[in-house]
Amino acid sequence: MIRGLQLVCNREEAVKAHLQEKPDIFKLAYLWSHDESEDCEVNDEFPSWFSEELLPNLVELKLSGCRKCKEIPSLGQLKLLRHLELIGFHELKCIGPTFYGVEVNKNANIQVFPLLKELVLWNMPRLTEWKEVQLLSTGNDGRDGVGVRIFPGLEKLWISNCPLLKSIPNQFEMLRELSINGNQILEFGIEVLLLKH
Question: What is the pTM (predicted TM-score) of this model?
Answer without folding.
Answer: 0.77
